[in-house]
Design goal:
Blueprint: H1 5-15, H2 18-40, H3 43-62, H4 74-92, H5 116-126, H6 130-138, H7 142-154, H8 158-165, H9 169-188, H10 195-199
Helix pairs in contact: 1-2, 2-3, 2-4, 2-7, 3-4, 5-9, 6-9, 7-9, 8-9
Length: 201
């Protein structure tokens, strides 16, 4: 029987078990690295950010005042660190526009949106055309792109994504809804030149 993430975390924190930590990294490295590549669109930079993320993770887990809640979900906690590393990089490069969520109009997406499983299934359908999907995701508005990457690459729940990005769950779901609508338009477009018009339509 394979140890859970929490068992591996406990082994590392309590006994400095390096093998336990290495297993944690191997178990989740593809998801975390995939998210970082999607965010920065450069594999070398993503590799640097991946290393930086895990340096921060190790330091935090060894710190008795670490923010990690051992009753929480380890991957979600690590993804917050990875996201912060990616955003720090993008801000330094002046390529990130911080889009404020506006829930002040009181609109609710609950009745208009499909549930999480249906949204995830839509991404699985799109992933059959992986290379084309990646190109389309890269053209999404930043806030839509991020929620797609967090959901598709790391399999976080929408509640976890909402908590991580500091928005309501309705906003996270709404961003995914609009991202899927845009992806459908782009992936059905016969010509790449139509992307800009489609995103603005």
């Amino acid at each position: 029987m394979h140890p859970t993430d929490e068992e591996l975390v406990a082994a590392f924190i309590e006994r400095d078990d390096q093998q336990a930590f290495e297993l944690l990294v191997r178990r989740h490295q593809d998801r975390i690295y995939g998210y970082l590549v999607g965010m920065v669109r450069d594999r070398a930079t993503a590799s640097d950010l991946f290393q930086d993320t895990f340096l921060r993770v190790i330091a935090a887990m060894r710190n008795q005042r670490a923010s990690y809640d051992r009753q929480g979900r380890w991957l979600g906690w690590v993804m917050r660190i990875a996201r912060n590393a990616a955003l720090d990089h993008l801000r330094r490069r002046k390529k990130w526009l911080d889009v404020d969520a506006d829930d002040s109009d009181g609109r609710s997406y609950w009745e208009a949106l499909p549930d999480e499983k249906l949204l995830a299934d839509a991404l699985v359908h799109f992933s059959d055309q992986r290379e084309w999907l990646e190109a389309c995701i890269d053209r999404l508005p930043d806030e839509q792109k991020e929620v797609v990457l967090l959901r598709h690459e790391t399999d976080l729940t929408f509640r976890e994504i909402a908590d991580m990005t500091g928005v309501s769950i309705n906003t996270a779901l709404g961003r995914m809804r609009y991202a899927l609508l845009n992806l459908r338009k782009m992936m059905d477009a016969p010509d790449e030149r139509e992307f800009a018009d489609l995103l603005n339509s």
